[in-house]
Amino acid sequence: HLMDTGFAEGSGSADILITSSENNLIYDIGDPTLKNLAACIFVPASGRTKIVNNTLNGALAGVDSWGGNIGPHTIQNNIISNMRGYGLSDVLIAENPTLLHSYNLYYGNAWDYGPGAVPGEREFIGDPKFVNTGAGNYHLKSGSPAIDVGLDVGLPFSGIAPDMGAFEYGSADYYVNSITGDDTHSGRAAVFNGTDGPWKTID
User: Fold this and answer.
1) Is the pTM of the predicted complex or chain greater than 0.85?
2) Integer Cα distance of 11 and 113 in angstroms
3) 29, 67, 106, 178: least buried by Cβ within 10 Å?
4) What is the pLDDT of residues 11-24, one digit of tens each?
5) pLDDT tens for residues 142-178?
6) Strand pairing partners for 144?
7) How far is it, in rounded angstroms, from Cα 155 to Cα 165?
8) 123, 110 in Cβ contact below 8 A?
9) Count of CB atoms within 10 A of residue 126's CB?
10) Cα separations (Å) of 121 from 62, 74, 75, 128?
C-alpha cells in the first residue's frame, strides 16, 4: 500500500522507484513468506534522491538501491519499521559514501543498517506508537518518541520541531472527491462506491 498524504498513489506489492519522496505512508510491501526484493523505496540508477518525512513499514527493506548510484542521497525524518531485512539496505550503504541519513527513527527491523554503517545524527531506535497499524492508521499517539524531534527540512509542521514520519501529531485526514472536488467528507465515514467516492487523501 502506498498513500501520499497529499493523495493516494495506489496499492499492491510493487517497489517504489523514486527520486524525491516526502510525506508518504508506504506499508505492507511484498510477500512476507518470500525473500523477494520488495523495498518500500528504491533509489534509482542515477541522480540525487531526497527521502524525507515518510513512514515506511513492513517490507524486505525500507530504502534500497538498484546499485551504481553514488548520489548524493538524503534520508531524514523518516520512521522505518518492521523490515524483514534492512532499514537502510546493505547495497545502499556500501555504494553511497556521501549518503546523509539523520533524524530517522527505527523500530522492529531485522537490521537497521547495512554492514559497516553507524547511526547518523539524531537517529535512534524506539516504538513510534502508531495509532492502529491493523487498520492502516499510522498517525502518532500521544507520547510517541517521534514527536517534535525531527529536522526542519522545509515542510510545514506544528510544535517546536517537525515530527518524524509522514504525519504530524494531531493532524486529521480529510478526503477530496477526485471527480467533483467535494472536500466535505471527514474521512471517517466516507462512502467509497467506485464512482464518486473520495479518492484523494490530504493531511
Assistant:
1) no
2) 26
3) 67
4) 333 344 455 678 88
5) 999 999 999 999 999 999 999 999 999 987 655 555 5
6) none
7) 12
8) no
9) 15
10) 18, 12, 11, 18
